[in-house]
Amino acid sequence: MATIYDVAKAAGVSPKTVSRVLNGDAPVNEKTRAAVHAAIGQLNYVPSSAARTMRSQRSGLVGMITGAISTSPHFEPTGLPEIYLVQGAQRVFAEHNLTLLIADTGGHAERVPDLLHTFLEHRVEGILYVAEYHQEVHLPGNLRGRHMVLVNCFDAVGTPCVLPDDEGGQFAVVDGLIGKGHTRIGFLTLPERQAARPHRTEGYRKALAKHGIAFDEDLVIAGAISDVAHEYDLLWDALDRLLRIPDPPTVICCANDKMAMRVYGLLRERGLEIPKDICLVGYDDYRMISEHMHPPLSSVDLPYGAMGARAAAKLIRLISGTSKPNEPSRELVSGPVAWRESVRPRDRVVTPFQTWRRET
Amino acid sequence: MATIYDVAKAAGVSPKTVSRVLNGDAPVNEKTRAAVHAAIGQLNYVPSSAARTMRSQRSGLVGMITGAISTSPHFEPTGLPEIYLVQGAQRVFAEHNLTLLIADTGGHAERVPDLLHTFLEHRVEGILYVAEYHQEVHLPGNLRGRHMVLVNCFDAVGTPCVLPDDEGGQFAVVDGLIGKGHTRIGFLTLPERQAARPHRTEGYRKALAKHGIAFDEDLVIAGAISDVAHEYDLLWDALDRLLRIPDPPTVICCANDKMAMRVYGLLRERGLEIPKDICLVGYDDYRMISEHMHPPLSSVDLPYGAMGARAAAKLIRLISGTSKPNEPSRELVSGPVAWRESVRPRDRVVTPFQTWRRET
DNA sequence: ATGGTTTATGACACCGATGTCATGACATCG
DNA sequence: CGATGTCATGACATCGGTGTCATAAACCAT
After folding, report:
1. Which class would CATH give A61-159+306-333?
2. B166-297+340-359: what fold?
3. What positions of strand D are covered by protein, i.e. any atom < 7 Å from a CB?
4. Which site in A16, A321, B252, B317 is 20 to 30 Å from A304, CA atoms measured?
5. A298 and A340 in contact (C-beta within 8 Å)?
């Protein structure tokens, strides 16, 4: 590879002048500048980030640790969120001339220290620590004192973090459903241990309260439990109970799109047609699912791309020291509700529950 | 940050000796080694990759360019494949003490030169160029002469590449279906422009040929076209034609899981139950879809993780110059067929087509 | 005892940028 | 016209490691 000395020689100037042309830190005569640029083109010169890093003590690198946490032995490497996070973050970093280093633990949390060491060798200027789903994490101590932003997770000591606005998302979808005339809104929730669950439930309650609709606990049932083995039975039972209550729901909110996908099948088995007989909404808006279900599934967008971008911006502010003094350490990111054909207004839904109940 | 000089001073040795302890390139006395390690721990020393890079001319970095190609204006950022690729590749790189730089074009191919320049500044030792789906690409000229491996794509000049074994995958699934007694096997193919299509079709033909079953062109219809706007109508029509032929299929192979997902809905609309009345298989094995369909979908695993790992290994061989002299520039990676409940043996399938035809 | 080899260590230069300081050529001003 | 300031450029040291070479001590064989 050509060096700055080669360029200097070819252009008949000193290396320092070439440096000035590249960095614009001092005026350079127009003719000199042209000669230098010509030499650079000729030699295919690309400056060495390593040399620059040594002198300036700035690496231009940021690290991202993903897949770091495997709380469940049935770790499910769906990976979907991460790619959007990466894209969102990388876009922002690129605008600030930062390059993204990526390390994936593959679910083995014990690899984190090693990966971190590698990052430090490369003198990353900051680190994004990404969790698979909204949860609390406990960071290894050697991360202290580094610029860092947690994404999709938070810790007990107030490390800056970016989280999905679960309460806002659930509020928005329930508020929207009520706006379409629904008043009996079933809610198949996440397992109890999930950090998002209380926030989602709070959003559900607040939306009801806004419209003066009483909260009915019969309408809210866990649609999944931590123990994956019995998940399917549980969902069947939860749905069964929802449909058997005296005044059954005209729409069901599922905790995520995967759950909604199964509910499609279960409802069809019972002879219920979506959205004619009952409406359905999901959460996450995995478009690969929601757009291709039949009919397409309404869902709350879990804005991973935006979260990545917001986290990157936050990290850049930390690095550059331009954080506002009272900037909150916790940022919530909202996504829109994607309304699709799985939902129609209440007055166009005809719940044939009596019929169905007679049959079983 | 502590430097090697600080460590040397603290341990009472020369910097070079510290370097030897770190790299093990020459024998060091046991007591000296212990003193050095103690000093390293004390000072929290992490060697600077920048300084090491300058001297040794090896950066320990490899780059990956993803999302580079947007052939379609309706670019669909599913992103699913990439995360597995990243994980697979990163695992192998980590074993070789290489760190992965990631740049995502977000579908804007014109950004590639810039991203590439950044990679070169960091003196990456090799580059993986990843396409969204199996296709031909044309690389910008300035990539020539770099160690590079194409993933999920190939070019006209024989750049080393790693591709999914589309022929083998389709062969395996059709061979398996025939093994289960099926002889009338419908095939909803990819759009014509897709590079994978001829390979898949060849696999389909070879599996039939192996068992002496005649190829029936009525059974093979494009299930999708490039023009996204009419995709759904086309699929409806293709399925309709498949089901109306004199001796209709007992199982249908879909070109991908998204298509299969829609076919679930379309078949149900026609009153056909999977797998009782007709069986279905997909391709890609997006487990988020295949495992959660009702019933779960049989599908050919498109082994992105393995492709990432194979590509990484290939790149490492290029970098280290240990490629076998006659190593093929093109590597095919196969994945297993995931058999699930959407398929059952032929003798347990009761096709009620006569009934259905009377109705319509 | 002596020469040859191995072991353990240090001195020093170098990788390729850039920060600091110095310098010469002009332009401007009182 | 000399003092002062601005512009354009170069010399040199430095960032933190490692390759090369030198050297001293310990070990071994004759």
Report:
1. alpha beta
2. Rossmann fold (3.40.50)
3. 7-12, 14-20
4. A321
5. yes
Of all nucleotides, the one whose C1′ comes closest to residue B14's CA is C10
- The alpha carbon of residue A52 is apart from the nearest alpha carbon of chain B, in Å, by 9
Q: 3-class DSSP state for residue A244?
A: helix
Q: CATH assignment of A4-47? A: 1.10.260.40
Which residues of chain B from 298 to 337 reach within 8 Å of chain A, CB to CB? none
Contact, B86 CB vs strand C, < 7 Å:
no
Domains of chain B, by residue range, sit at 4-47, 61-159+306-334, 166-297+340-359
Task: Tell me the chain A residues in contact with residue B94 when contact means C-beta distances shorter than 8 Å.
Answer: 103, 115
Cβ within 8 Å, pair A258-B53: no
B61-159+306-334 folds as Rossmann fold (3.40.50)
Q: Using CA atoms in the order A188, A189, A191, A193, what is the torsion angle rounded to 10 degrees?
A: -170
Q: Are B199 and B186 in contact (CB under 8 A)?
A: no
CA nearest to B187, candidates B274, B286, B279 = B279
Q: Are B61-159+306-334 and B166-297+340-359 in the same CATH fold?
A: yes
How many Å apart are A63 CA and C11 C1'? 38
DSSP three-state, residue A359: helix
Contact B79 A78 (CB under 8 A): no
What's the average pLDDT block by block, 10 residues per block, for chain A (360 residues)? 94 95 90 94 95 94 79 48 84 93 84 91 95 88 84 93 97 98 96 93 98 96 77 88 94 94 90 93 91 92 94 95 83 96 92 52
Point out the residue nearest to C10 (C-alpha to C1').
Answer: B14
Torsion angles phi and psi, residue B151, rounded to 5: -125, 130
Interface with A, mutate which of B292, B301, B302, B340 (most A CBs under 10 A): B292
pLDDT digit string, tens, across residues B226-238: 766 677 788 999 9
Extract the tokens encoding A294: 């039949």
Report the amino acid identity of residue B95: E
